[in-house]
Amino acid sequence: MAVNLKQLAEILGLSQTTVSRALNGYPEVNAETRQRVLQAVRETGYRPNRAAQRLATGKAYSIGLVMPIAAGIDSDIHFGEFLAGLAEESVKHDFHFVLNPSAPDDEEATFRRLAASGNVDAVFLAYMRPNDPRIPMLKALSIPFVVHGRSIGGPRDYPFLDVDNTQAFYDATKLLLQLGHHRIALINGPDYLAFSIRRKKGVTRALTEWGLGLDEELVHHSVMADEYGYRSMQHFLERPDPPTAVLCSSTVLALGAVRAINRAGLAIGSDISVIAHDDVLPMLKPENFSVPLTTTRSSLRAAGARIATRLIGGIIGRGDYPEQELWRAELIVRASTGPAPGR
């Protein structure tokens, strides 16, 4: 049976106040004592009384998130992977989630209700859009928050963690150009999301440097599911002047694109090159494709864990973290990219 705070203090020979302060990260408790307390917590299975803690500290020890739900909105395994990272870090500190479903057109109001409820200490934002109205709204509410991604336009002085999507797709496109590819297709995420806009910008920038333009007929935007990747690639291959290379915004989209390429009887890496963005989804590893995929790699789970660390650190007053973080994706070259046909 798990012990209570009084019993834990007796086991350690410390006062209940010292144990409580050690668990809550107060700086006056030295590192050795804190480690003793944490070790005893692991050994005894102690769990703090959240109701008592909330009365004492005014903190709910919860992170809030709003999930848009409506007919026509597909579940997203990418968001699930991000939440797994957030959850892994939260459980280490015995923090909870407060998940509020919301109609897409009621999202701002849902955030306002969540902030006013007192049931969360901080929130995070995802699926950023240009001039995203949620940022100035949360700044005005004065609730701590961290953004996963960045808006385009609007205020810039807000906390975020993002992948440098422009640079990632610039690097990927530059690799294809160096291999002699001039007709390059893009299967992208939804056109209203900031990460998709930046990825397209990276492709365009690289092409422009080579004196080329992006053919809008070779750009498709969709939710990131394999069926959409298949349809987009099939459409590109039916053109009289099909692309010799394709960039996919996810390994999930690439799964569908590869299926269309195989059904067309083309060889990946020789007839057509493929590069995908790899969010490090555990069930879809690019090295396990029939032809291992060249990717731009950045872990969604690691991003979720980092945002949880920043939010929790801010809540309990532990750690000093940068306000804004921009992670660079790693370009990993595998067998799915090769010289353009005829080169």
Description:
The protein has 343 residues and is of the alpha/beta class. It has three domains: 5-57, 434 Repressor (Amino-terminal Domain); 62-163 and 300-327, Response regulator (Rossmann fold); 165-297, Response regulator (Rossmann fold, 3-Layer(aba) Sandwich), CATH 3.40.50. The protein has twelve helices and twelve strands. It has helices spanning 5-12, 16-23, 31-44, 50-57, 77-92, 107-117, 134-141, 165-178, 194-209, 226-237, 251-263, 300-316, and strands spanning 62-68, 96-102, 122-125, 145-148, 160-163, 184-188, 219-221, 245-248, 273-278, 294-297, 324-327, 330-332. Strands 2-1-3-4-5-11 form a six-stranded parallel sheet, with helices on both faces. Strands 7-6-8-9-10-12 form a six-stranded mixed sheet, with helices on both faces. Strand 6 (184-188), helix 9 and strand 7 (219-221) form a beta-alpha-beta unit. Helix 8 packs parallel to helix 9.
Number of distinct helices: 12
User: How much strand content do the residues show?
Assistant: 15-25%
> Which strand order do you get reading across the main beta sheet?
2-1-3-4-5-11
| Level-1 CATH class name of the largest domain | Alpha Beta
How far apart the termini lie comes to 71 Å
CATH topology-level name of the largest domain:
Rossmann fold
Give the overall form: elongated
Helical amount: 40-55%
Cα gyration radius (Å):
24 Å
Strand count: 12
Overall tally of domains: 3
Task: Label the CATH architecture of the largest domain.
Answer: 3-Layer(aba) Sandwich
Written as H for each helix and E for each strand, in order along the chain, the element string is HHHHEHEHEHEEHEHEHEHEEHEE
Query: Pairing-aware structural class of the strands and helices?
Result: alpha/beta
Let me know the CATH homologous superfamily of the largest domain: Response regulator
Integer average pLDDT: 90
Q: Runs with pLDDT <50, length 5+?
A: none
Query: How many strands, what sense, and barrel or not for the largest sheet?
Result: 6 strands, parallel
